[in-house]
Specification:
The structure is a homodimer of 353-residue chains. By secondary structure, the first copy, chain A, is of the alpha+beta class. The first copy, chain A, folds into two domains: 245 residues, Creatine Kinase, Chain A, domain 2 (2-Layer Sandwich); 92 residues, no CATH class. Helices cover 46% and strands 16% of the residues of chain A.
């Protein structure tokens, strides 16, 4: 399977069907390193390339990654291809900037993947739409075992798995859940909720990971600590907190309808009016309007369109995917015009009720 | 004629027909004071009331103000009535805040009026749609002569007419023109043009006079100096400058079509999308969108509506007129909802082409 075939399919971090869930998707990653080798940041390119080869042969043979996993060498990827992989949440911004000696291996359905020589030698990642941390944990644990049969991980009996950044030492696990919480923002309750999460040692990030803002009212929340608790304990704790935030959002949606119907109608109406008639639509603005339309759809204000269409736009309006579709690098100003046309066209049959 | 009948008719500062002129309207005012009486700011309320009576009997008998001019006593007006008069540019913000001893006399067509005991004893004002300073000068000069036959003005043979604020001493004349210059803003040229006006001793104000911002891309430009030149010289100078700014705007419209068609389409499209679908529309935002729709209409992007409709909305979406129409005081939040509905309804047949 080629990158082209993969890109045609749905991404693992967005529901492919008509599910308008508050809990958009779940993700677990494990940071692992090879015993006796310098961390990627300290090893030279040649050493990284040697290790990459060694890891690749093991990963290709891991049954968990499927029969013919996709294998990417960062060095050979174009900027657009890197952007596409990043927008599909398969690689991090850091890996996207790397070259020789780093890469990615992914199941063709994108549900299981491994970044090679990002910050750590191996970053295993499992990802699925919806609230599926238990399932992801079983899958990533299986892959982890399959790798460990062939490679010796850097491991300390007192500390656990050793990682390039001390914050990942121990389990090396980060479990995260992507939440879509537009009603909390419209009720001016996002800030207090996020603050209470920080107090519970939970990290909050934007749609595109570390250092990104919360465009489209999408937030990734994840465990901050990786040490001193078992993997399943960390996951269970996150599950409880996610459930609580999702309940807050559900309540906020109900109160929005009852207490601020004009605000709700205004935000959905403006989003609708703008995506239908704007001539220029920057990427982050598109995410915000799609978020409002999602909410409008969930609350019965917007008809004639489908969550699957909105989710597809969420992915395909992003710069990498948009340029991929055009088959050429497109300057930002032209992208904003193309994006405006793409969204208006896709939502032609949508209507406010 | 009652205030109610007057409010039903067109306002003198907006074209009533389908004229989408860059030069929206013209206005001349003369500041005059009575000889031997303290300026209103120094006279007590009782003295002001006495002078008001004296001036009123003269004004009622001035043929230039028509057979049965409208006469308002500020003390007796409700807040909504004051707002309505202000939005029709018949009274200033200062006069709107005054009570006993101050008032307004106006021709029923609003083209000629006199504020009584604002900053000066008399503020004569002539106002018409379009570029009509010569005509206005003849009219206001006639009224001025008719008053001077009956009242002695405070006048110095060396300085000219004496006024409460030294900046008005001399002719006491301010000629101003309201310009609608949206293309200059879209071409990012508003600032340089306004700066060059300041260098030419020309004052620039927003839509609603001193201290207001330029909502709706409407600017009033007027002479800064009132001393050392004749009235007709001051007017001729302003006419030349206004003509130049209007030409700039015309050129900017042409270049906008040629150089930034996407930006033009975006601004008009967003304005259209928002006014049609927003649930809440604050006053200044409405002015900005109506400005964009005006431009869209002038440049052939917006069809199915009429400049007369847009101009009517420009007036009737303002807080005073909106509350007048509802027949009751309406709190700001509810006004924003009513305004959104009013505009959406009035532009139901409009469409982008």
């Amino acid at each position: 399977m080629s990158l082209a075939r993969m890109v045609e399919g749905p991404t693992a971090w967005l529901p492919a069907g008509s599910d308008a869930a508050i809990i958009v998707s779940s993700r677990i990653r494990l940071a692992r390193n090879l015993e006796g080798a310098a961390f990627p940041g300290w090893a030279g390119e040649a050493e990284c390339a040697r290790l990459q080869k060694q890891m690749l042969s093991v990963l290709r043979a891991s049954p968990a990654l499927g029969e013919a996993p996709l294998v990417f060498d960062m060095e050979t990827l174009t900027t657009i291809e890197r952007d596409v992989l990043r927008e599909r949440h398969l690689i991090s911004i850091d890996l996207a900037h790397k070259g020789l000696g780093s890469g990615l291996v992914a199941r063709t359905d994108e549900s299981l993947s491994v970044m090679i020589n990002e910050e750590d030698h191996l970053r295993l990642q499992a990802m699925r739409p919806g609230f599926s941390l238990d399932e992801l944990w079983r899958e990533i644990n299986t892959l982890d075992d399959q790798i460990e049969e062939k490679l010796r991980y850097a491991y300390s009996h007192t500390l656990g798995y050793l990682t390039a950044c001390p914050s990942n030492v121990g389990t090396g696990l980060r479990a995260s859940v992507m939440l879509h919480i537009p009603a909390l923002r419209l009720m001016d309750e996002t800030e207090p909720v996020l603050k209470s999460l920080a107090a519970m040692d939970i990290a909050v990030r934007g749609l595109c990971g570390e250092g990104t803002d919360a465009a489209g009212n999408m937030f990734q929340i994840s465990n901050q600590t990786t040490l001193g608790a078992s993997e399943t304990d960390l996951i269970r704790r996150l599950q409880a907190i996610v459930t609580e935030v999702a309940t807050h959002e559900e309540n906020a949606r109900q109160r929005l309808i009852e207490e601020r119907p004009a605000r709700l109608r205004d935000v959905v109406g403006r989003a609708y009016g703008i995506v239908r008639h704007a001539g220029v639509l920057p990427s982050n603005e598109a995410l915000d309007h799609l978020s409002a339309l999602h909410l409008g759809n969930a609350l019965g204000i917007l008809k004639g369109t489908d969550i699957a269409v909105l989710n597809k736009l969420l992915l395909w309006t992003q710069p990498g995917h948009l340029q991929w579709q055009m088959g050429r690098p497109v300057p930002p100003e032209e992208r904003d015009e193309l994006r405006a046309r793409m969204v208006a066209e896709a939502l032609r049959s949508a209507r406010l009720v």
